[in-house]
Amino acid sequence: MSSLAAGGEVNPLIPHTAEIIAGLIAFSLLYFVLRKRVTPMFEKAFAARTEAIQGGIEKAEKAQREAEAALQMYTKQLADARGEAQTIREEARTQGAAILEEMRSKAQEEASRITASAQVAIEAERQQAITSLRNEVGALATELASKIVGEALDDQVRQSRIVDRFLEDLEKSKK
């Protein structure tokens, strides 16, 4: 009845009831097969892809955290190394100053020792010169006294006493 139009003709736009039932059965079978077979595969693929993406994100976040931790560790090590280098430089400066001071004191001691030994040598030469001068002055004085007195003053002890007395008189007259 519905397939017949008002004038008794068959309307081509309205399908037959058998076609509607066959289409409905075919659609239901196709829907059932797709729902049971294909949809789980798509869901499984989507789940795997979601898992892979999520795992990749987690791995990336983990790698980023590890990289940040490594960066912090390297930064700390670098700071420690710089501090240690600064400490070593300060120790080297301190040791250098100590070595310089030690070398200065050794040089001062060496200079003092050389000065002292030179003073001792000068004093020894002075004493030697005084002794030599006394002997020469004594010999000349004895010779002069021998000529003045007219007698020989060859006795060494007497000669020595005369020279000593003469030098004492000279020293007293200077004062």
How would you portray this structure in words?
The protein has one domain (17-174). The chain has 2 helices and no strands. The chain is rod-shaped, with a radius of gyration of 65 Å. With 175 residues, the chain is mostly helical. The N and C termini lie far apart (174 Å). Helix 1 packs across helix 2. The model has no long low-confidence stretch (mean pLDDT 85).
Keywords summarizing the entry:
single chain, 175 residues, mainly alpha
Secondary-structure map with pairings?
Blueprint: H1 17-149, H2 156-174
Helix pairs in contact: 1-2
Could you tell me the number of beta strands?
0
The largest sheet, given as strand count, sense and whether it forms a barrel, is: none
Structural class: mainly alpha
- Summed over residues and divided by their number, the pLDDT gives a mean of 85
Contiguous runs where pLDDT drops below 50 for at least 5 residues: none
User: In whole angstroms, how far apart are the ends?
Assistant: 174 Å
- What is the 3D shape? rod-shaped
List the total number of helices: 2
- Topology order in helix (H) and strand (E) letters: HH
Number of domains: 1
Question: Concise description?
Answer:
The protein is an all-alpha fold.
